[in-house]
Amino acid sequence: MNFNDLFKRIGKNYIGANLAKTNLAGNNLKRANFKGANLEEAILEGTKLQGANFIGASLIRSNLQDANLEDANLAEADLQGTNLGGARLQGANLRDANFERADFVSSKEHPDLKHINLQKVNLQGANLQGANLEEANLEEANLRGANLQGANLLWSNLKKVSFIEANLQGANLVGDLQGANLQGANLQGANLQGSYLKDVNLQKANLQGANLQGANLQGVNLQGANLQGANIGKAKNLVFDQLSKVKTLRDTKIDNMNLLIQLKEECPKLFM
To answer: Closest by alpha carbon to 71, among 88, 51, 48, 86?
Structure first.
């Protein structure tokens, strides 16, 4: 049965329907019910899906480019490898959804995810390059290995987020990152000015040229971190034990003269 026959028979009720590889591009499916449906590799490009129900649906490797998913319910949906470039997700419920390796990048414009709630969402390996995530809620989200190069995360809730080995080069991370894991992450040129970084794991992170001026670094793990050219002037709660374990302090801006003198005396190799 093709989609047109299915549409005539059940209208907008597709609960548990098998729509794998179906072409639904450009259709008006506002408030349609796809709960538990199989939409793997389906084509939903430019489809109107405002208020649609995708609870527990499988959208693996589907094409949702430029689709309108405003106010849609994607709770517990599986969107692994899905193309979401240009998709509109404002107001959508993404609770416990799986966006592993999903691509949010559009050739037309940067992804706009301002104010979005991505709490505890799996975004491992997702492509969010240049995304606007200003004031988004990403608490406890999994962004391991994700591409967030140049992304705007200004004032976002980044508590306990996993950014392990993520690409955050040039990203704006001014905000609350308490307890976040940035082990091995690329933060080259990132902006963390004044950020709250209590108990953050920056082990082996690349902070080359990063701005950490005025940041709260209480309990931060900097073991093996690259701080070459970084600005840690006026950083709060920064102690010798932290900086003595970094990979390098070459050209690093440190305005705490007592700390600087102690480091040069006891760890001269860090400045070579």
So the answer is: 51
DSSP letter for 267, please: -
Cβ-contact 124, 142 below 8 angstroms:
yes
Opening angle at CA 228, ends 131 and 144, nearest 5: 35
Average pLDDT value for residue range 189-212: 99
Give residue for tokens 């392990």: 164
Residue 11, exposed/middle/buried by CB under 10 A (0-12, 13-18, 19+)?
Answer: exposed
Tokens 């405003």 identify what position?
70
Nearest to 75 by CA among 61, 86, 63, 59: 59
Whole-angstrom distance, CA of residue 129 vs CA of residue 126 = 9
Are 103 and 84 in contact by the 8 Å Cβ rule? The answer is yes
Largest CA distance in the chain: 80
Mean pLDDT of 38-55: 97
H-type helices in 210-251, by residue range? 240-243
**Cβ 158 vs Cβ 181: under 8 Å:** no
CB of 53 closer than 8 Å to CB of 32 = yes
Whole-number Å distance between alpha carbons of 222 and 225: 5
CA-CA distances (angstroms) from residue 154 to 63, 64, 124, 127, 249? 29, 27, 21, 18, 27
Cα–Cα distance, 67 to 48 (Å, whole number):
6
Report the Cα 138 to chain-centroid distance in Å.
Answer: 7
The neighbour count for residue 251, using CB atoms within 10 Å, is 12
Rounded Cα distance between 135 and 131, Å, is 12
Cβ atoms of 195 and 216 closer than 8 Å? yes
Question: What is the pTM assigned to this prediction?
Answer: 0.91
Phi and psi at residue 196, in whole multiples of 5°?
-95, 105
Cα distance between residue 5 and residue 39, in whole Å: 17
Task: Look over the chain and give the mean of its residue pLDDT values, rounded to a whole number.
Answer: 95
